[in-house]
Amino acid sequence: MTSVLFVCHSNSVCSPIAEALLNHLAADRYRVMSAGVQPVAIDANALAALNKLNVDTSGLESKGLDAVADEYFDIVVSLCEQAEAAAGAVPAERFMAWHFTDTPCCSETDASKLTQEIYERIKLLVLVQDRQEKTLW
């Protein structure tokens, strides 16, 4: 099972969205967590955007990097520039930087757009990861 950590500055918008989406798409193949450099409560519009897509948000909570301090991940993904250095310091086999604006969503429309953008990246990650794990013979 591939372990993935999504990191953003506040763990209130981008990283919880990414965590919920990857769990929604492939919870059987991925152990997914999210964390923030300076966590605050998860944005209500981010939750609404996920719920609108019937993505399970139960158990989703904002947490800091200290909550994953003793973990090792196969993949760590930084979702904003402000979190890149901190995310890069987390022990992992691979590090990726996907830069989104990590600010509280102004509206449900903004949250829905951001959710779609993250969803497209998540689908690509799963596709590439699945292909890397399959052998030709």
UniProtKB/TrEMBL annotation:
Q: Which Pfam families match?
A: LMWPc
Give the record's keywords alphabetically: Arsenical resistance
- Tell me if Transcription regulation is a UniProt keyword of this record: no
Specify the Phosphotyrosine protein phosphatase I domain's residue ranges: 2-128
Q: Does the keyword Hydrolase apply?
A: no
Alphabetical list of InterPro entries matching this protein: Ptyr_pPase (IPR023485), Ptyr_pPase_sf (IPR036196)
Gene3D superfamilies for this protein = 3.40.50.2300
Report what the protein is called.
Answer: Low molecular weight phosphatase family protein
